[in-house]
Amino acid sequence: MTVGPKMESSEVNRYLTALMTNSEAIRGLTRIVADTFGPKGLDCMLVGDDGEVIITNDGAAILNAVDTAHPIARILVDAVRLQDDKVGDGTTTVSILAESLIAEGVNRILKGVPVIKVIEGIKRGIDSALAVLEKVKIPVERLDAPLLEQVALISARGHQDLAGLVFEAIQILGEEYLTKPGFKLADQVLAFEGSPTELIRGTIVNREPLNRGMPLRINDAKILIVDDALEPVKIDYQALGTEAGFNRQLHNQELLRESIDRLAEMGVKGIFADRGISDQAESHLTDSAMLGVQGVPRSEWERLAELTGARPVKREDLLKPPKELEPVLGKAAAIIVDQDSKNIRVLGFPDQKMVTLLIGAYSKEVLAEKERIIKDAAGAIQAAWSGGVVAGGGSVELGIARVLEQKAPLDLERYGYACVVEALKRPVAQICANAGYNSLEKLAEVLSRQAEANSFNFGVNCETGEVQDLIQNGICDPFLVKYHALKSAGEVAVAVLRINTIVKMKN
Ligand SMILES: Nc1ncnc2c1ncn2[C@@H]1O[C@H](COP(=O)(O)OP(=O)(O)O)[C@@H](O)[C@H]1O
Ligand SMILES: [Mg+2]
Prior knowledge:
Blueprint: H1 9-34, E1 44-47, E2 53-56, H2 59-65, H3 73-87, H4 91-110, H5 115-136, H6 146-155, H7 160-178, E3 189-193, E4 198-200, E5 202-205, E6 217-226, H8 237-240, H9 243-265, E7 268-273, H10 279-287, E8 291-293, H11 298-308, H12 322-325, E9 330-338, E10 343-347, E11 356-361, H13 364-387, E12 389-391, H14 395-405, H15 414-423, H16 426-434, H17 439-453, E13 458-460, E14 467-469, E15 476-478, H18 479-498
Helix pairs in contact: 1-4, 2-3, 3-4, 3-18, 4-5, 4-15, 4-18, 5-14, 5-15, 5-18, 6-7, 6-13, 7-13, 9-10, 14-15, 14-17, 16-17
The chain binds adenosine-5'-diphosphate (ADP) and magnesium ion.
Adenosine-5'-diphosphate is lined by residues 36-39, 41, 59, 89-93, 154, 392-394, 431, 460-463, 475, 477.
């Protein structure tokens, strides 16, 4: 479609109305997150109807929670969520780039450039930008490279303790684990109010043993996971009224007792059940100096199973002979009941590579923000390990803008292409503005230093205000985070600019 002389005026109006409402909505949302951007960005407080409060600096958390009636917001929110899921960081960057691309596009469309040329130009610009980005990435060779710890620190906005935890975790996990398909370091984070913040070589079961008579520490333990209740096999309620039924129930209770004895003989020291543990089973476990834990949520026993190699069983399986039960048992180096934190730590042997990034805080709000921060850092360090790094602080975007400016197409698509060039200048400008610097001045200074040194690595260090080699000063972002951010910002912009009509559906 062309906004221009060939269009009927009603068509033009319809398109422009859709465009203006949509771009305004995106602008409104981005304005909220833009102030949080970069190391000196401020926090945002979200308040729910029921008094629920979220205090955060995280773009994804804000956009997810914001109450927006505008349907176009979904496109941006979904893109941001995908960014968070895929690479775990860079969510504000997506929003700022997308908003900027759209605003630049709208400017040109209003001046009469055909919409389709703007769209094609944006696509072309994004493709070129991604190609340049690919060329300037710096691979990370070793897991213990200080640059990796820096990436975590930058992503964790200076929280040294959280960045340190994440860095230590990858040293333990090693290369093989980190590159395992589907493995996410961020999934290894567990957050509990009142817990200490520490790295655990194992996992946490956030439950207490059934009673105080059970052991508080067991070393070198075999464990069993029951994805069921640890109770005698049930007798039908009506049958229970008959003598035969009653006898069967006694028999089933006896069978469970025998099963527990058998497990004890096999060396099982801990039983973790998804559901309840009957009183009789509990007292039998206590007598046998075994640990019994009931109501363990699936997410927790799944980690336990992964750590210890245990295979969850149903209650009927307990009747099986030892030979068949042996392979379903798991092994742990230690089970420790932490009475202060009211939970149980299960530690692995050195060859069992699970880690848990345990974090705690004394208020729910602070804990939630800490959890978001460490998850970002975990995502960033994993992304940096697998894809390398680029200079942070928006300087790599600015470097790409510099290169793109020199290769602009000659046809009408150059107007769309120019939108990309302008959008790429936005991150550095916003980071500088949030840090209290004159962004135009800093932009010009960075551009000239980059050109002079022929390097993308020069940018503004917001701690000092100096323009310097940011890689040398440890201010860097994962390549994959930047790559996905640029790509999805381009997609959001194109999707928004393509919308021609807004029609209300019938219910
Ligand atoms: N000291 C610093 N100087 C300049 N830029 C920094 C500094 N520390 C972090 N940054 C930059 O801040 C940006 C990340 O800001 P953040 O608010 O986490 O947004 P996002 O949600 O996009 O990750 C990154 O580009 C990072 O390089
Ligand atoms: Mg970040």
